[in-house]
Amino acid sequence: MNRPNAYIGSAVDRIEDERLLTGKGTYVGDLNLEHLLHAAILRSPVSHGLIRSIDVSAARALAGVRAVITANEIGDVPIIPIRQHPVPEGERFRQPVIASGKVRYVGEPVAIVVASDPAIAEDALELIVLDIEELPPLADYVTAARNECLLFEEAATNRAATFRARMGDADAAFAQADYTRKERFSVQRHTAFPMETRGLLAEWVDATGHMTLYGVTKVPFFNRRVLAQMLGIEISAVDLIEVDVGGGFGARGEFYPEDFLVPFAARYVNGNVRWIEDRREHLMAMNHAREMYAEMEIACTKEGAVVGIRGRIDIDLGAYARTNGFTTPRNVVQFVSGPYYIPNLAIDAHSFVTSKTPTGTYRGPGRYESSFFCERLLDMAATDLGIDPAAFRLKNLIREEQLPRPLATMMDLDATWQTELDNGAYPIVMQRCLDEFGWQEKIKLQGQLIDGRYHGVAVGNFVEGGAGGRSENASMTIEDDGMVTVAIGSTALGQGLKTVMSQIAADALSLPIERIRLLHGSTTLLTDGVGSFHSRATVMGGSAILLAAEALLDLVRNEVGMRLDVPAANTSFSDGKVEAAGKSFALQDFAGLSVEKTFINTKLTYSYGAHAAYVAVDAATGEVEVLDYVTVEDVGRVINPATLHGQVLGAVVQGLGSTFLEHLQYDENGQLLTGSLADYLLPTATDFPNIRSVSLGLRPCPNNPLGAKGAGEGGLIAVGGVIANAIASALRSLRVQPCDLPLSPPRLWRLIAEARSAEMSR
Questions:
Q1: Which of 295, 61, 344, 45 is nearest to 186 (CA)?
Q2: What is the 3-state secondary structure (H, E, C) of 510-550?
Q3: Other beta carbons less than 10 A from residue 755's beta carbon
Q4: Residue at a domain's end among 579, 600, 621
Q5: Three-state SS for 20?
Q6: To 10 degrees, what angle do helices 389-396 and 367-385 make?
Q7: In a 3-state reduction of DSSP, which class is residue 740?
Q8: What single string gives the DSSP state of each residue in 649-690?
Q9: Residue 2: predicted pLDDT
Q10: Is 175 part of a structural domain of the chain?
């Protein structure tokens, strides 16, 4: 078969951009069905308490209110299942779709109001009288660990789950090591921040008993199954429709309480109901992430070979174990070693429920945190041993002949939790980063005071897992107009999905890209599918497209063979033409031929790379300027270098925001203090202007037909550790060791002041 196209590897402009940039996008707020009603949700103002009563009579009497729904109206309140990495002990901590008898965090849904106007629905919330007997809040994991007050009395503990990762014999390695060092670290609670808050529109047709839910993303097929089961109707009676989404980043698109409450309300009132959260709701109700506290220890030879890492990580899970709440605790223990050859590991992570919003995944879940812990330890060890930090890392990076290499074993869990790094040229990529960064020149500035600011540089490495979820579906249909409609189970989260998938399909079919009509993410398109998470869409969805394309072309070959009585193998394809035995057909001559295929893969992909940072620190104010930031990453086969470049730059900025700015803070009563953009700080385009990125395709992945690796998160993973190390290097004369994120100016100023005070007292 001729394959003249070369869309894969080309910087094709994003197909979706013209529609979005000209205001033709369709978001949940743009949908307007007939007789549309509006929902608002009453959320608990108390972090922990028993519900004595809910008086909704005044709210129900308000003109324009169609219904006020509490747990009483729902009856048997459904419990949300765990989608990723379920563990038996965690089942006791799953979240009900609405508070029943007890509230466990500020923001937990207590009632939902449906009205003819959104303002009326909001007014009705003010009329509901909620009587809650307050119980002691579990404001942090330390309080929770004492088990003096329980969020779930029947569980008899606030420890939701423990994850243990092991490799080799860590205790023996430490006993024999020339050098050891123990430190404490922490990563603050923060969250994903899509431009568009969550929104849903539920359409219930009573005559047919059919539910359509608009506004879903990420995992629509899983959510469809869950919703159908909760509503007690057949899966075929539920459709989930993806519309445009203002970003996802791991948090948006999971099954939340509202994903049941809004459809239930639509069926309850026999109508169409829309709900869109405001920004405060978003900050208090959507998954939080990251908050954890670690005590870690490193062991090395005197020559600088790392022989072991061991430690304990305590994780603030929030009030419930949500659909993907155990993914981060699992990742953080298994990925502490990152791309380094560390033969002995022993890491335990304990997840505790507290009186805070539940947590879930956020870009690079567990990997951002584990990279911070590991990279800080590596720099400390290199400094203590008198070894250049870059040379120290090059010495300990996994060599190509050592791959594939298993990561640490997850103890007490089945084989599906185990994984191995696939392939890679880690030292080559790190050296490329050092060269791009100009390490040999910039290292001369280490710790120098120049124009009133201390200068420092650092380098670090990472691995990024991708292609989870084991399967994805794609279908192809030849249309009468010569177009080929391609449908995939992957969903669009702003990552340029339509462009990349169209490139893959066009090359696979030897068609101009303009003849690909790409559909995605809705349950009406395919018999089954998975979605977009874990940097999987390109690898899994793209590989499913390859299978579907080959199957479709086989159908065409067979049809040609029957028409011309020639062997099917003699058929060729090029630019929308089908040729055999001297005859030529247009592709539309085979209109109606259609296939659906499933790509199954049990092995993850691992992109990898290096980051380098150059900072200047004002010791008088604690302000840090990022003067230069360089990333180099090998992603296997590059499908679209332009969209990849945008993904990496965006991820770096998110990582810098996570490292310097973003912080969800609570008081001692479990009240969220940072519930608006006046308090929750986000990076802007002018905050971090000097970012450079190089994406390579050195080692195609051996585990999928595309040779691609997931590449949506690598720009973020190493940022926290690299920036903290650069700051520590800048301030080495002051003996400042930043071990807690975020590195905001006030926190850094206090560290500098404490270091100076300690120096004066010596």
A1: 295
A2: CCCHHHEEEEECCCCCCCCCCCCCCCCHHHHHHHHHHHHHH
A3: 17
A4: 600
A5: helix
A6: 120
A7: strand
A8: HHHHHHHHHHHHT----B-TTS-BS--STTTS----TTTS--
A9: 46
A10: no
CA atoms of 347 and 333, how far apart (whole Å): 6
CB 504 within 8 A of CB 511: no
Instruction: Report the amino acid identity of residue 659.
Output: T
**Predicted TM-score of the model (pTM):** 0.96
Of the three residues 566, 600, 634, the one that is the final residue of a domain is 600
| 568's tokens | 């099917």
Give the CA-trace dihedral at 87, 88, 94, 96, to 10 degrees. 140
Q: Using CB atoms within 10 A of its CB, is residue 269 exposed (0-12), middle (13-18) or buried (19+)?
A: middle
What's the mean pLDDT in 716-723?
Answer: 98
Distance CA 82, CA 90 (A): 9
Residue 223: the pLDDT is 98
Average pLDDT, integer, range 20-34:
94
**Mean pLDDT over the full length of the chain:** 96
Question: Residues 32-43, buried b or exposed e (16+ Cβ, 10 A)?
Answer: eeeeebbbbbbb
Q: What secondary structure does DSSP assign to 88-132, as a single string?
A: GGGGGGBPBSS--SEE-STT-EEEEEEESSHHHHHHHHHH-EEEE
Q: Which domain holds residue 497?
A: 17-25+468-600
Rounded to whole angstroms, what are the CA distances from 532 to 59, 87, 254, 495, 654? 40, 23, 11, 10, 19
**CATH number, residue 225:** 3.90.1170.50
For residue 733, the Cα-to-chain-centroid distance in whole angstroms is 38
Name 18's Cβ contacts closer than 8 Å, sequence gap at least 6: none
| Contact indicator for 464, 608 with CB cutoff of 8 Å | yes
DSSP 120-154: HHHHHHHH-EEEEEE-----SHHHHHTTSS-SSGG
Beta-carbon contacts of residue 754 (< 8 Å; ≥ 6 apart): none
Residue 446 belongs to some domain of the structure: yes
Q: Measure the CA–CA gap between 355 and 319, rounded to whole angstroms.
A: 5
- Closest among 420, 171, 182 to 308, alpha carbons compared: 171
Shared domain check, 240 and 118: yes
CA distance 159 to 706: 42
Write the CA distances from 671 to 307, 356, 665, 666, integer angstroms. 44, 8, 8, 5
- Kindly indicate the confidence band of residue 4, based on its pLDDT and cuts at 50, 70 and 90: low
Residues 269 and 379 in one domain: no
User: Once rounded to an integer, what is the mean pLDDT over residues 593-616?
Assistant: 97
Distance between CA atoms of residues 457 and 439, nearest Å = 8
